[in-house]
């Protein structure tokens, strides 16, 4: 059964106020206040001196005993939101592999699910490792990006992008953080993502809570559980108002099981959110051995994904 061997995150120390960031990118003042007061964003981490590969390397080097695991890593999978993250011929994944001493591993980029590619990468890693002849083989998943356009830095009426990154070691088997179920659904009518027309944008915001709730319910049921069995939800960090609607549809009273501690200070870190939230939650003692928990993510385009794991 696919399991997470280790998870590390990297959050740049330098941050900027969300209000200043939004104004810089032309967001009108009433919208700025909405992002702060209703969506819950306060500051986002930004490191102007770091390149895309720097974020990935920093996250991977944060994994405990990474040097000991390195010889067993057969696959390196970058889960990213945007198909193009650097000008040709720059290749951040190849650079990261070189700096991490992983030139011999098979390197793969997944972008098809946008911000939900992180959960897809766990599923793909598990399939690759299950077919690998070496039962000790591992996959290294890395996620986190640097946006270089306004459209990539600010999601209209949804979220603000931060520069956090995560690294995850995945094994084909194990007795901790085992993946119990994975569910995903792509709603193709919203395939233009941030470039939807006004009518489809309104429809996306209207249908979003129900689509996410359906995928969460599908993952939980596939694991043979119900929502009462889920100790913690590790979400993608988009506005808290949308999450309250999702919880109502799921019949979850209150938001005490929704882990949003990182939203105000990290923003939405592309496909790395759930793993960053995992690291923070574990360090804070929010997950105990045997707890079942849920990771979620939604990628523009529009892909809704949920994964159930057992700590």
UniProtKB/TrEMBL annotation:
GO molecular function, one term: acyltransferase activity
Residue ranges of every copy of the Beta-ketoacyl-[acyl-carrier-protein] synthase III C-terminal domain listed in the record: 222-310
Biological process according to GO: secondary metabolite biosynthetic process
Keywords, sorted A to Z: Acyltransferase, Transferase
InterPro entries named among the record's database cross-references: ACP_syn_III_C, Thiolase-like
Transmembrane portions of the chain: none
A Pfam family hit: ACP_syn_III_C
PANTHER family linked: 3-OXOACYL-[ACYL-CARRIER-PROTEIN] SYNTHASE 3 (PTHR34069), BETA-KETOACYL-[ACYL-CARRIER-PROTEIN] SYNTHASE III (PTHR34069:SF2)
Name this polypeptide is given: 3-oxoacyl-ACP synthase
Origin species: Micromonospora carbonacea
